[in-house]
Amino acid sequence: MTRVKFELPADDLARATAFYREVFGWAAQKLPFEYVLVDTDGEPVDPQDADGGISPRTEFVQGPVLIIEVPSIDDVAPKVTAAGGTLLNAKERVGDYGFSQYVKDSEGTVLCLWESIADAT
């Protein structure tokens, strides 16, 4: 089973964070690198269970991205290419939280595969 989260790109993380707090009442937690975790229920953010994040706009993250949590990126990435998708970057470690890899599905939609450290082997 997979869990789906989201990532919103921003040119200014502080400005975007303030927007989502003020407009929707989301809770936010800045990480020690350029990323903000958010919980849409307004409760304090649990880094292991956040609903999504706000990230700097990058080559891959130009619009909203679905983050699909998987038990193993190494197992899922070959399935992406076998099903007609494309790997956009190599699997990367994200602090002490987990690993990510951006992919495109068969229709060109950018997705982010996520493997949490708790699930990593």
Automatic annotation (TrEMBL):
<dbReference type="InterPro" id="IPR029068">
    <property type="entry name" value="Glyas_Bleomycin-R_OHBP_Dase"/>
</dbReference>
<dbReference type="InterPro" id="IPR052164">
    <property type="entry name" value="Anthracycline_SecMetBiosynth"/>
</dbReference>
<protein>
    <recommendedName>
        <fullName>VOC domain-containing protein</fullName>
    </recommendedName>
</protein>
<dbReference type="InterPro" id="IPR053863">
    <property type="entry name" value="Glyoxy/Ble-like_N"/>
</dbReference>
<feature type="domain" description="VOC">
    <location>
        <begin position="2"/>
        <end position="116"/>
    </location>
</feature>
<dbReference type="InterPro" id="IPR037523">
    <property type="entry name" value="VOC_core"/>
</dbReference>
<dbReference type="Pfam" id="PF22677">
    <property type="entry name" value="Ble-like_N"/>
</dbReference>
